[in-house]
Amino acid sequence: MSVVERLQGLLVAGAAALGFGAGLLLAPGAAAAAGGLVLPALLIMLVGVFSQLSPGRLGAIRDARGLLAASLVLNFVFTPALAWALGAGLLGGQPDLRIGLLLLLVTPCTDWYLVFTAAARGHTGIGAALLPLNLGLQLVLLPVYVLLLGGQAAMVDARTLAEAVLLVLLVPLAAAFVLRRTGAAERYAPAIGTATPLLLCLAVAAMFAAHARTVTAHGVEILMLLPALLAFFLVLPVLAALAARLLRLPADRRVTLIMVTTARNSPIALGLAVTAFPDRPLIALALVVGPLIELPILALLAQLVRVAPPRTSPG
Q: Which residue ranges does UniProt annotate as crossing the membrane (predicted)?
């Protein structure tokens, strides 16, 4: 493991602080433009993650029924109930913040959780196999969750779905396939391993820079959101770890379950919020603040649950 990978948690925290400071110092237009770096950095990062996957490992999902069942229950049954309880209990008088929290928490991540899974030496093959399932289910179920639990429906248009599938899944997979077929993935494996956390830091810094003024302008609302967000990001890893222990999952699959149930899909949820509720900025605020809490926690989790490398006998 490279020095960059070992220091990933500190680098993510430093990138967040640097991006936030830059966002306050830059002109508003320049700060907003920094947000345009998030998606490209994320896509290149996923190309690196996918290029290190062995195609044979993707079939491992067939032998991981326990992990699959646990992830589906935690992501699509328990989490919506927890999101409703947190919103009703802590944000009952703020319907917009409650809907924003709901949109954030009921959308499992379909991108950077793979980076943290790889950093913690989880089973990235199973993680990648879960990605399209999580994406499809959340887009189908999101309007149902919001209608039943939030009181209003957020419809998903065909363009949003197509962009999510093409950009987040198919494009990185296609590029990674080319790298593997040409042998570049193996030839440049050390460089890819080092570049992946650096790209994550770039995405984090750009996100903090783009939304720094939004965060400072809504300090009271953010303080109201923090208890609910912190509760979620503390409860889910613990429950996932307990489920993994009950199922007696191997260490790498335990890491995968923790990451796939803790990370949230804020980019897609933010796009849906802007589309469905263009005149209610407080809904989008929860989706901006969410990653600011989530990413440092995921970086810390990756260090805490990292699978120990196999021991090699001397000589």
A: 7-27, 33-54, 66-91, 97-116, 128-148, 160-179, 191-210, 222-243, 255-277, 283-305
